[in-house]
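Data availability excerpt. The first of two example chains:
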Amino acid sequence: MMQRSLLLPAALLTAWAIPASISPAAQDDLPLDVRVVTDQANAVLAILAMQLPGENLSAADGERLFSSEGYQRLKKREASVQREFRDADFQKFVLSAELLKRADALSRTLQHWAQADITFAARQAVGYLPIGTRMRAKIYPVIKPPPNSFVFELQKDPAIFLYLNPELSAAQFENIVAHELHHIGLSAACLPWFQSPEFKQQPETVRTVLEWAGAFGEGLAMLAAAGGPEVHPHATSPAIERARWDRDVANFNAHLRKVEQFFLDVLNGRLKTEEEIRNVAFSFFGVQGPWYTVGWKMAVVVENAFGRSRLIACMCDPAEFLAAYNDAATRHNAASGESLALWSAELLGRFRARPALGEAKPASISGNRTRLPVGVRRQQQTSGS
């Protein structure tokens, strides 16, 4: 075959990783195991570097691609959501003229992402998790047909699949990684709460609402990835995305009321079937809908009023999070003259009184029998944020 002028730096031929000892200053003894595995993307790029239109895939190139860890786990993930994924179809994609045209851009993007500070991204995520939360994850930049990203096997071998997108800078890549790592860490930290007697003793409709309220974890992840309330959550994004976010946040009060009506409709039996509930709840995801904007705004108000430790202490218990927001917003409104919407007494009164959650206990992701909060489960099923 004739070789094309597409260079693969030696640094990209293996995974790059965060040593287990690296962690934020406040959690110096916290083990992290976060690794970026590029073998699938490297295998595709190596094929494209040697490929001419109309040529077939060599046995050696096919073996390298189809045996790569990233490809094998991608194939397993697609099977888990009952989506057809055949080697022959993927081979056609890799050998397509369309992908060949994008080869240089994809190679440059992987090089830029390789320069991203994954340690920084992990620190951003851990900075908004309970002390002692153990985090491990593999990040797979992948070249594939659908332009979606997602997490997978959070309780067994946590993975983040990121579509290799030439439109994303290294800074945006870091932000996305921090966001998804926060999902993984929050899942680990909060499993004890969703296994607790306090949660299990709630009526079924209350449990459903609390599980869906866990989708406010999208907003928490936005805050964590930004690094704090003073940093715009789309600081690294194009102006059009930042403007869209600002418009949506400006509708905070109306969006909070929409989410509250959803909660009350579940509690009062107006939404009964799982399909009915999911249809409404999923409408709050959107590009970055109320699960993101309302969740982020509540988290910012709580942190500004009471400090980050109070916010972290209530992250795992959605009822505590909503109550803490009401306290913080009441204080904020009195001091600023604003009129941030509050959750109604009708809604908060439906959650049974129980001892304060306090700071979540350290947790590891292990086993595969525990039901994850809805917001985290959704990340395994659809495109990530």
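And the second chain:
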Amino acid sequence: MCFMIQLSLIDDSFSVFKEKKVFLFGAGYRGHQVKNDIEKNGGKVYAYIDNDSNKKGKIVDGIPVFSPDLILNEKDFVVQISCENETEPEDQLKNLGVKNYITMQEFYQRLYDLRDYKMFSYKINTFEYLDKLHVLDTHFPTQDKLKLWEHLKDVLIDDKQALFLCMPPKTGDWTLIVSLDRLNISYVNLWHSLKRFGIVKDLLLDRKVKIITAVREPISQNISSFFNMISFLSDEKEFWEHGGNVQLLFDKYLQCDLYESLPTDELKYFRRIKEQEGVDYVIQPFFDKHFLPYCDVDVYKENFDHEKGWSIIKDGNLEIFIFQIEKLNTITDALANFIGVEHINLVNENIGSNKWYKKAYRQALTDIVLKKDYFTECMESKILNHFYSKEDISKVYYRWIKHI
């Protein structure tokens, strides 16, 4: 005789919630959440049961609320516990002789595992995917890899929109991260390269994919990025002598990150970090080097609305929202519409003027010296001349020309 030890009442078809009369034990916030998740997966809830006398006999979420002991009159039913403290309801059900019940912990673990199981239909599994991502991008943190995997499940299994954030350093990425987190929507921050998107894009060919990115005039971005990365220059004597020489460090930083013309023994620590991350911290090469190779969209071939300060590029299943960071506070309605929310409240984060080096940063914006060749290259850069109007470029010119 073959005897089976059943792991759970929940199978891959969620049949227990479709074939039996389903009671939810707990008619509060968690009950509402569990009810929605059951119905989202094709199940149906018959009623709540609850010990609160104020709820008994009422209609909550369109279904009645009964006393727990009334389920003893039922035959073909299952009880799904739907409250934070599961111990008391579970003990109560045991005392009533009810065996067909499911804890909330079991429900959500099975739901989580079911999403992984369904991903096999896309011929990819968690461990193979994570191994592939790790091999191609060892620096990408494990928690971010898992978040990318979870977002893919949201898109492929739950039909949520595919939303990615990929912005050059110091173009407001942290402001958007915190602001999007507060909206409680599914998205993935890919940091400063679409490399990870290139790994998974074939899974999303039949889905609309939205990407948010940004630009900033290069000199301001280069200075801001320099200060943001300044601790990675701590292997240099200029970092320490007389408290740190910002001008000499900035000149070396530009040579190392923009021109890469320094001897290999210069800025060793920064070079190692840069090589590990595979990212340029200056904005100039971003779209050619960290965007185009992974999405096949050349943003410089697309028109950009200088007056609005933002545009949407459409290419196949891709929609790319690109904006000037200088006009971030004026584009919130357009950004919210692109994301699919009514409104987005921007929360400023990772601002140089608020950091420990804020005094030196503010002084650098006033007094730092720019080499003429570097200034000319920035003024002639693709990123400035494509994404900014002649008037904007003139303002950049007159802001920085006095620093030569």
